[in-house]
């Protein structure tokens, strides 16, 4: 039984040799431990660098946007949902993408792993079935995989890809085991004052590097609202009001499109939990429109249509 | 948008939406008065505001 890595490489080589595609987008080993990086293989030789691990947290759908050539892409559940979204939003054509589907085991959170070994250097993480082996100088310890999964992977509802041209391995369990309704929108039950406190605490450390935006497959505007200066929608400073405005608007632009892939949180260099905002919107969209982004190519995204019977209960009458 | 802003802790009653045609001057005036009164009742905004006064002016106000 070939390993998943071998299967990915064989598949990629075949696609490149037969010129079915011009490029295979996957992951390769990162330059630091616990961070794999996106990788573009243009030749069969380069395909040998492709890997699959629990740290493949970048959303590869992001790299399909605006491509003119034919590309193959490695896609687990959330990535395939984002590909559906991009096809619906006409950022890429279905016949341009060859989707190599994979079941996601639930990706790992490098913050959570590091937090278990404070002040220790981690050089390597070896993944076994339900355990991971963390190695470093004077350190070799097993940790249950489920304890260090990313938050969004715990409440995943679609681990198998929704669309694919070829599936590597077997389809697996569909959900992450957590109940999204129990953890989404964590501040809903709080008073207005408490919410503001939580919001301030959660976002005050932002350094505005925009990694969350750049990692997000929904953020493909040629010019982002934060970069526009005529008009200037959002101030450029580190003042709280400017930082908060950026995060509120970034989250809102994802309304009805976010697949909860968690790429934003994984990309953040200071560990901000953007999902505290996006999960609220995602929950509202589910409650109000009964819609989950990217699950069905034929479904109409709720914010792209108008219905005369919209309750509009937020409007002044 | 309203749900989201109130979720992050903007006070309920500070944000209002309405639909007014450019031909509805009377309605515009009525809604504007209504909104101004509602917001005035909330008092000065403390959240999501940027104070660009220099420090010595802030100290004066405090």
In short:
The complex is a heterodimer of chains A (317) and B (62). Chain A is α/β, with parallel strands linked by helices and 317 residues long.
- Provide the low-confidence segments of chain B as ranges: none
The largest chain-to-chain contact, stated as pair and per-chain residue counts, equals: A-B, 29 and 23 residues
Order of H and E elements of chain B: HHH
Gap between N and C termini of chain B: 33 Å
Description:
The complex is a heterodimer of chains A (317) and B (62). Chain A is built from ten helices and nine strands. With 317 residues, chain A is of the alpha/beta class. The longest helix of chain A is centred in the last third of the chain and has 15 residues, at 275-289. The mean pLDDT of chain A is 90. By secondary structure, chain B is mainly alpha-helical. Chain B contains three helices and no strands. The model of chain B has no long low-confidence stretch (mean pLDDT 85). The A-B interface holds A 185, 187-188, 192-199, 235, 237, 239-242, 244-245, 248, 251-252, 277, 280-281, 284, 314-316 and B 1-12, 16-19, 31, 34-35, 47-50.
Name its key features.
heterodimer; A: 10 helices; B: 62 residues; mainly alpha
Set out the fold topology.
The complex is a heterodimer of chains A (317) and B (62).
Chain A: H1 4-17, E1 23-32, E2 35-41, E3 50-51, E4 71-75, H2 77-88, E5 97-102, H3 110-116, E6 124-127, E7 131-136, E8 139-144, H4 151-154, E9 166-168, H5 180-183, H6 192-203, H7 211-215, H8 240-253, H9 263-267, H10 275-289
Parallel strand pairs in A: 1-4, 4-5, 5-9
Antiparallel strand pairs in A: 1-2, 1-3, 6-7, 7-8
Chain B: H1 2-7, H2 25-42, H3 55-61
């Amino acid at each position: 039984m070939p390993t998943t890595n071998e299967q990915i490489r064989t598949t990629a080589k075949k696609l490149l040799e037969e010129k079915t595609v011009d490029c295979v987008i996957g992951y390769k080993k990162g330059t630091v431990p616990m961070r794999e990086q996106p990788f573009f293989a243009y030749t069969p030789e380069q395909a040998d660098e492709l890997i699959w691990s629990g740290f493949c947290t970048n959303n590869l759908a992001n790299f399909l946007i605006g491509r003119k050539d034919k590309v193959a892409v490695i896609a687990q559940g959330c990535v395939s949902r984002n590909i559906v979204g991009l096809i619906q939003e006409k950022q890429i054509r279905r016949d341009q993408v060859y989707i190599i589907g994979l079941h996601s085991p639930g990706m790992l959170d490098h913050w959570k792993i590091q937090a278990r070994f404070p002040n220790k250097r981690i050089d390597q993480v070896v993944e076994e079935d339900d355990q991971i082996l963390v190695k470093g100088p004077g350190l070799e310890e097993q940790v249950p995989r489920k304890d260090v999964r990313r938050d969004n992977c715990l409440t995943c509802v679609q681990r198998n890809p929704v669309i694919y041209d070829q599936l590597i391995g077997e389809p697996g369990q569909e959900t992450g085991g957590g109940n999204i309704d129990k953890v989404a929108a964590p501040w809903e039950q709080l008073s207005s004052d408490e919410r503001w406190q939580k919001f301030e605490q959660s976002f005050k450390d932002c350094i505005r590097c925009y990694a969350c935006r750049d990692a997000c497959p929904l953020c493909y505007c040629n010019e982002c609202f934060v970069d526009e200066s005529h008009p200037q929608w959002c101030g450029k400073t580190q003042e709280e009001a400017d930082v908060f405005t950026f995060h509120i608007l970034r989250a809102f632009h994802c309304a009805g499109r976010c697949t909860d892939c968690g790429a934003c949180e994984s990309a953040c260099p200071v560990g901000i939990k953007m999902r505290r905002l996006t999960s609220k919107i995602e929950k509202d969209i589910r409650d109000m429109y009964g819609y989950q982004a990217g699950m069905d190519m034929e479904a109409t995204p709720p914010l792209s249509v108008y219905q005369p019977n919209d309750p509009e209960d937020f409007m002044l009458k | 948008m309203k749900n989201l802003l109130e979720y992050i802790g903007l006070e309920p009653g500070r944000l209002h939406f309405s639909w007014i045609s450019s031909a509805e001057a009377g309605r515009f005036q009525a809604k504007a008065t209504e909104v101004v009164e509602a917001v005035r009742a909330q008092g000065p905004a403390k959240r999501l505001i940027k104070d660009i006064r220099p420090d010595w002016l802030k100290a004066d106000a405090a």
